[in-house]
Design a protein that fits this description.
The complex is a heterodimer. Chain A contains three helices and seven strands; from the N terminus they run H-E-E-H-E-E-E-E-H-E. By secondary structure, chain A is of the alpha/beta class. The chains are: A alpha/beta, B alpha+beta.
């Protein structure tokens, strides 16, 4: 299945739920969706189209938090990235996709602690990388987080 | 009524080469659950990258891991090239391929040695590490470094492979192959290793797909995935080579896959040296426009994945790094439950976990918002030891 076929199948399946398609080249495609539709899209792409889940990338876009879910077609060699934008930066919520693929288990925990995104339905959002006593409400990969200056010459 | 006990391994443990914590829940000798805690090695490299220029980011990601010290840079430069639509000269593509396969050889040999050590088979440990040396020697000759080669750059490579290096590389590869034959015999024909590794820690193909397992961990479960073939980059699509798979999914299958992959790597390097085209090694790109790009490369442990976003300035706005161990690690829980405690370490070792890749240190104390350097940490450690001694009534 070529990238154009995959895009057409996704469009046919979801119609107006596909907000925007940006086919960057023959190997990359970015599809904007609403956060509420993420499980439905993931299920279709992972289970029905048989694409492999690469990883999810959260991005602090200053005004909003977006998550890109990257799926690889290992037969034709392209990547489809779903983009879900959460406009409320103070309380970003999105449904968990661990109900579709277990491979999202750690990445949801990581995005939760580094960006403050809450994944509805994921009951295991314990810190993955940061210490247990990391202060709540401080998210190191958000743009407003400033790394404290370090003086290496300090005695 | 069964009695459950907890066995903590780590975070600092003599057998582990890096800090990580496992809590095994056992009933008798049987593992019934496991909790993995990571984060002792986290260095915040994604955040650091945002404060660096695109050229500097490559050196940052090169320091994610000493073993995959070429896989992360090549993935990073490919992400930037994807972002900006930069083409790479043919000669650079071949040189990238050679470096990647040399890295796979030394990594798989290092793993074979460690696996032998985990099993108490220290001959394998010593052979594996001894016979990895010719590969590090080649790297030193070609790049100037045995690790952290600094070869990758956006648009090409930093150093050329000189004509006079080629006979030397071929001679050392011949030497390596003889030793690899010996190691293969020692491992694959050993009845003790068959008894110890076959049928242990099985990851089924279905589970491998569900967990999106990668590299030898996936291929040993019959999940035929290899980025070199599926998402061609460098010069892999111009060469003849095979993706090695095994259907069994046990620890022994993972050993077989890695051993046989080394033969493929040697073949790939020889083909590259034979076909090495002339011409420049760098397309010298200037500006990185706004946009986003994705890079993929098959590291020794599986697919490395980088996502880079640019706003048109000199630094990435976002740089996501995903190492292969990140995807393979959760399969450990799936494969160790139901096995005996004595097999837990080799089941873990079978995925070839790379903790520094997974975590990508900065020590912070948020109570007074202070960052500690090495000297401060040593002082804190000594102070804590003194207090503990006082508490326990130990003198001296």
């Amino acid at each position: 299945m070529k990238i154009d076929d995959a895009i057409k199948k996704i469009q046919d399946q979801f119609g107006a739920k596909v907000r925007k398609i940006d086919k960057k080249n023959g190997k990359r495609c970015y599809i904007d969706i609403e956060p509420a539709d993420v499980v439905e899209f993931t299920k279709y792409i992972f289970k029905d189209l048989g694409l492999r889940f690469n990883i999810a990338t959260a991005v602090d876009d200053f005004k909003s938090i977006e998550i890109l879910y990257h799926f690889a077609d290992d037969v034709s060699g392209y990547i489809v990235s779903l983009r879900a934008i959460m406009k409320d930066k103070n309380d970003p919520h999105i449904d968990t996709i661990t109900t579709v693929t277990k491979s999202a288990w750690w990445i949801e925990r990581e995005i939760h602690e580094l960006f403050g995104v809450h994944f509805n339905g994921n009951n295991d959002l314990r810190p993955l990388l940061l210490s247990d006593d990391w202060p709540s409400g401080v998210y190191p990969l958000r743009k407003n987080f400033v790394v404290p200056k370090r003086d290496s010459r300090k005695a | 009524m069964s009695h459950k006990a907890h066995i903590p391994i780590g975070p600092y443990h003599p057998l582990q080469e890096e800090p990580e914590f496992y809590k095994l829940v056992v009933e008798g000798e049987k593992v019934v659950d496991v909790d993995v805690r990571i984060g002792w090695n986290h260095r915040g490299i994604e955040k650091l990258s945002e404060a660096k220029s695109f050229d500097q980011s490559i050196f940052i990601v090169e320091r994610i891991c000493g073993i995959c010290s070429s896989s992360h840079p090549i993935t990073c430069v490919q992400a930037v090239e994807d972002l900006a639509g930069i083409s790479v000269p043919d000669r650079a593509l071949y040189i990238r391929t050679i470096i990647q396969e040399l890295e796979r050889l030394h990594s798989h040999m290092l793993w074979a040695g460690l696996a032998g050590h985990f099993l108490g088979y220290n001959t394998i440990f010593m052979w594996g590490w001894k016979y990895r040396e010719p590969i590090c020697d080649i790297m030193e000759t070609v790049t100037g470094n045995r690790q952290n080669y600094a070869m990758m750059k956006v648009g090409g490579v930093r150093r050329d492979i000189e004509k006079e290096h080629i006979p030397y590389i071929l001679t050392r590869l011949d030497e390596f192959l003889k030793h690899l034959d010996m190691l293969r015999g020692a491992i694959l024909d050993d009845p003790v290793l068959h008894a110890r590794l076959k049928g242990v820690g099985i990851l089924t193909k279905g589970k491998a797909i569900d967990y999106a397992a990668l590299g030898p961990t996936a291929r040993a479960s019959g999940y035929d995935v290899d980025v070199r073939r599926d998402h061609p980059y460098a010069a892999y699509d111009r060469l003849k080579w095979n993706v090695i798979t095994r259907p069994e999914g046990d620890v022994f299958a993972k050993v077989v896959v890695r051993i046989l992959e080394m033969y493929e790597s040697v073949s790939i390097i020889r083909q590259c040296l034979d076909k090495l085209p002339g011409g420049p090694i760098d397309s010298n790109p200037k500006d990185i426009p706004p946009g986003e790009g994705i890079g993929q490369a098959e590291a020794p442990r599986g697919e490395c994945f980088h996502y880079v976003k640019s706003d048109g300035t000199n630094s990435p706005v976002r740089h996501k790094v995903r190492a292969p161990t990140y995807m393979n690690f959760p399969t450990f829980r799936e494969t160790v439950i139901g096995e005996t405690v004595s097999d837990a370490t080799i089941i873990l070792a079978a995925i070839d976990p790379c903790y520094c890749c997974t975590e990508r240190m900065l020590i912070t104390d948020w109570r007074d918002k202070e960052l500690f350097g090495v000297q401060e940490l040593i002082k804190l450690s000594q102070e804590k030891t003194r207090l503990l001694k006082e508490k326990m009534g130990v003198r001296g």
